[in-house]
Amino acid sequence: MSESLTINQISKVIRERRSIFPPSYVKKEIPEQTIQEILENANWAPTHKYTEPWRFKVFRGPALQRLGQYLGDWYKKNTPEGKYSEKKHQKTIEKSMKSACVIAICMERDQDERVPEWEEIASVACAVQNMWLTCSALKIGAYWSSPRSILEAKEFLGLGENEKCLGLFYMGYYDDLSIPGKRNPISEKVEWINL
Q1: What b/e readout covers 37-71, taking b as 16+ CB neighbours within 10 angstroms?
Q2: Phi/psi of residue 2, each to 5°?
Q3: Nearest to 90 by CA among 23, 171, 19, 172
Q4: What is the mean pLDDT of each run of 10 residues along the chain (195 residues)?
Q5: What is the reported pLDDT for 3?
Q6: Vertex 187 angle, CA 181 and 191, to 5°
Q7: How many alpha carbons lie under 13 Å from residue 103 in its C-beta half-sphere?
């Protein structure tokens, strides 16, 4: 018998999703099978003309240190002397190390450009939302970060000509947190047109 979700269960997962940052993560590995499940749900995002533009690079184990070092080195190299902070440099490196897994969110543009680029980016964003909701349901903390260092990491990530990185998806288990949601009422953002 297949499980069926109620609207209340779906609404609960959507409305309780939060950005959970690496300092809140506990030292606990996310099983590969769980990461596969998260990525499989990403794969079911909406995609115009079935271009399926989402691509992912999964960093785990020792690769997290390599990622952190790249981000730290980029910060050091690209920050003007007057704005450089050794504390921020260390924090940049440690963010990856505090995570159980970091996924580079990438996009491969349709070679024939059958749809506008913004639609491809929107599809990738939908894939990330699927990942985030899955993480939320599994009590895995996550957040999407898009520092310039990773947006310009084509060579580091080994991306092809039609590929670009749209950010990093940090993940890790966390102790229970109570983070209240903050949204203005939907009534302020909707205009009903009935005639």
Answers
A1: ebbebbeebebeeebbbbbbbbbbeeebeebbebb
A2: -85, 150
A3: 23
A4: 77 94 96 98 97 98 97 96 94 96 97 96 98 97 97 96 97 90 95 95
A5: 67
A6: 140
A7: 25
How much is the pLDDT for 5?
78
**pLDDT value of residue 1:** 40
- Interacting residues of 47 by C-beta distance below 8 A, sequence separation 6+: 53, 123
In a domain, 151, yes or no: yes
Its domain, for residue 23, covers 19-57+99-175
Find the angle CA(122)-CA(152)-CA(45) to the nearest 5 degrees: 20
The number of angstroms, rounded, from the C-alpha of 91 to the middle of its chain's C-alpha atoms is: 19
Q: Is 83 within the bounds of a domain?
A: no
User: What is the Cα–Cα distance from 5 to 163, expressed in whole angstroms?
Assistant: 36
How many domains does the chain contain in total? 1
